[in-house]
Design goal:
Elements (H helix, E strand, L loop, with lengths): L1 H4 E3 L3 H4 L8 E6 L5 E6 L5 E3 L7 H22 L9 H15 L2 H19 L7 H6 L7 H6 L2 H8 L3 E6 L7 E2 L4 E3 L20 E7 L2 E6 L4 E3 L5 E3 L2 H13 L4 E4 L5 H15 L5 E7 L12 E6 L12 E3 L1 H4 L3 H4 L23 E3 L3
Helix pairs in contact: 3-4, 4-8, 9-10
């Protein structure tokens, strides 16, 4: 009964690839700085009834993980990725999207989104003073299920990205309790909009598969790879840069094996400490512009909520911006899309007239 309640949000078979054996893994808690050697994998990345007491989602994940296990086993033995537009490719994209949306970090972000957006909306109502809003907390009943509700759409959004396997001669990559990291080198200087949505131009997805192999999905229209191959070796500097991306977006812990020294682990934590303190949710607010006051006195406000990317500015030796992308002004990079994908069940709304809203500045 206890095993059914213990629901892992990072698969045990995945974490076992990074440890010294099939049952233990080393970890560093990024908040406390506590380093633990030989921690039980069974006790990592889980919560009781995390997906629900009925166990339905947990069983669905177990079935999907069993289907993916042979693919991961093959990657571990001989670096390889399924060809695009095959059944295995779709399974991998679905797994990556699910993994990104099923963690404790994803659930916490969903809760913060509900809390902050509610207070931002109520702040427009004069009946709520600042003290009341500051004391207010709004939480979802089961935030991880809300996060997972968009995972299938996210998988469809990722399927046009180019895959690249990055391999290291020696164990070099760490992972975390939120192992799929989204980044955007192309638009990392954009601070007024989200740039790591699955449809954003310049999106990069980093997913360490083993300590010696990391999958990179990238926007082929924005980035060029040299030499142009499906698998490339990395330098020690490349591995360090990728580890910064992974650690900067971890929930609490990063995971590795005996090959990663104590000082290396603490140095990585120090390198990302500042960006991990940056705001996780931002709002841009715009007021309705009216020639005449509304008769009913109602004022419309347009709110844009987004998740800013922790900026670590990774410099990878094998990837570069294409010339056309380099020439694109920064102010345009935050509003470009690779493609359009209408979420299931959502009908398009009527477009707003130009000049309807104006951003308020302090």
């Amino acid at each position: 009964m206890g095993e059914n309640r213990r629901q892992h949000y990072v698969p045990k078979f995945y974490l076992s690839k990074f440890g010294a054996g099939s049952r233990q893994v080393d970890l560093l808690n990024l908040s406390s700085g506590q380093l633990v050697r030989g921690a039980s994998i069974k006790g990592q990345c889980y919560r009781n009834n995390f997906y629900g007491a009925d166990g339905e989602l947990e069983r669905a994940f177990a079935t999907h993980e069993a289907q993916l296990a042979p693919i991961f086993r093959r990657v571990h033995e001989d670096p390889w990725i399924p060809q695009r537009n095959t059944e295995d490719w779709v399974s991998v994209m679905t797994f990556i999207a699910m993994q990104h949306n099923r963690t404790q970090a994803a659930a916490t972000l969903t809760d913060e989104m509900f809390d902050e957006s509610t207070r931002q909306l109520l702040a427009e109502d004069g009946r709520f003073d600042e003290a009341t809003l500051s004391a207010m907390r709004v939480k979802a009943t089961n935030p991880v299920q809300i996060s997972l509700s968009s995972a299938l759409d996210a998988a469809m959004g990722l399927d046009d990205l180019q895959p690249l396997l990055l391999t290291a001669a020696n164990p070099s990559f760490v992972t975390s309790d939120h192992p799929v990291a989204l980044y955007n080198t192309y638009a990392e200087s954009v601070t007024w909009a989200g740039v790591t949505g699955v449809l954003c131009s310049g999106l990069q997805v980093f997913y360490p598969l083993t300590p010696s192999c990391c999958l990179l999905l990238y926007d082929g229209k924005v980035y060029g790879v040299t030499p142009k191959r499906a698998m490339l070796p990395v330098t020690s500097s490349d591995a360090e840069q990728i580890n910064k991306v992974i650690a900067s977006q971890a929930g609490r812990n990063i995971y590795f094996g005996p090959w990663f020294g104590d000082e290396e682990a603490h140095s990585l934590a120090r390198a990302v400490a500042r960006v991990r303190l940056s705001p996780r949710i931002k709002f841009e607010k715009a007021d309705e512009v009216l020639e005449q006051p509304r008769a009913n006195g109602i004022r419309r406000v347009l709110m844009h909520m987004f998740f800013p990317v922790p900026v670590v500015r990774p410099k990878l030796s094998m990837i570069r911006l294409r010339k056309r992308a380099e020439k694109t002004p920064i102010h345009e990079r935050g509003s470009q899309w690779r493609k359009h994908l209408r979420p299931r069940g959502i009908e398009p709304c009527a477009p707003l007239e130009p000049g309807t809203f104006r951003v308020r500045r302090p």
